[in-house]
Design brief:
The chain is of the alpha+beta class. 28% of the residues lie in helices and 30% in strands. It has 7 helices and 15 strands. Strands 7, 8, 9, 10, 11, 12, 13, 14 and 15 form a 9-stranded mixed β-sheet that branches. It has a 6-stranded antiparallel β-sheet with strand order 2-1-6-5-3-4. Strand 1 and strand 2 form a beta hairpin. It starts with a strand and ends with a helix.
């Protein structure tokens, strides 16, 4: 049975209902997080929850809940194992449609689970590389807030799929930002380059882990502005997200990256990433 959480209650998904006047439904006045659980254990859960608090503060939504207990219970009620947990908080409903709102609205809290693959059990040969396109970044300028206003992301993914690609990498003012739901890495001569953290990108939890692992294992990296030429001329290109891990990109706009295969530094990082993940989940 698919159990969800809604405003303090765990219940079957088909029984969960919200008001048609909820501001998340009407205006996208809401934030979210997606957190992987492997073998019932949250992957870098505290980092996800800290980013959630950043988004809530930015929207001035006041809410104090024991998130870890709430989510652990939801995962348990859905059988544990390997699950992606989606958590959304809206500003709530005032019973009418209005751009203005009162400060005392009761937020709506919703969470659900979907199964995911246990990444760390895969070897590098099991990871499917992806193809990408580059497109304009049409999002608002506060991408550091994990808002549910994702129409630009949806449109660029559809554009990529229409061109037989898997992901869209976005550019703004001549600079690469990130993918539709992932961060970007460009590798040249053994150095990892990734766009600088700013309000123009979402600071990915897996992005930070990759940079941490690079630092711990002597792999040089730089956070810099990246343009299209740097992308196309790279030896390797990767994307990362919490549910996909670190994935190689083998072509961009139908142009091969490097030799068109999975690069050696990606294989090294994949091993470091999955080893870290396995230790976190199993204690071994």
């Amino acid at each position: 049975m698919n159990i969800v959480y809604l405003n303090g209650v765990y219940l079957p998904a088909e029984d969960a209902k919200i008001s048609v006047f909820d501001r998340g439904f009407l205006f996208g006045d809401s934030v979210y997080e997606v957190m992987p659980y492997y073998q019932g254990v949250g992957f870098r859960l505290q980092e996800h929850l800290e980013r959630l608090q950043h988004s809530l503060r930015a929207l001035q939504i006041q809410l104090e809940l024991d998130w870890e207990t709430l989510l652990d219970e939801l995962v348990w009620q859905n059988g544990g194992g390997n699950l992606s947990v989606y958590l959304q908080i809206t500003r709530g409903s005032a019973g009418k449609r209005s751009h203005s709102y009162a400060d005392d609205l009761q937020p709506t809290v919703f969470a659900c689970c979907t199964p995911i693959r246990d990444i760390y059990k895969d070897g590098p040969e099991d990871i499917e590389p992806i193809r990408a396109i580059v497109t304009a970044d049409l999002r608002w300028h506060r991408c550091d807030i994990k808002s549910t206003c994702l129409l630009p992301n949806i449109l660029v993914v559809h554009q990529a799929q229409a061109q037989q690609a898997d992901e869209a990498l976005m550019m703004r003012d001549g600079k690469l930002t990130e993918g539709s739901s992932c961060n970007l890495f460009v590798i040249q001569r053994g150095v990892i380059y990734t766009p600088k953290r700013s309000s123009e990108i979402l600071g990915g939890i897996t992005r930070e882990l990759i940079l941490q692992l690079a630092d711990e294992h002597g792999i040089p990296y730089q956070e810099v502005d990246l343009d299209y030429d740097a992308l196309i001329g790279a030896d390797e290109v990767w994307i990362s997200s919490s549910t996909r891990g670190v994935v190689p990109v083998i072509s961009v706009d139908d142009q091969p990256i490097g030799d068109g295969g999975k690069g050696p530094l990606w294989k090294d990082m994949f091993e470091l990433f999955t080893r870290y993940q396995q230790k976190l989940m199993t204690g071994m």
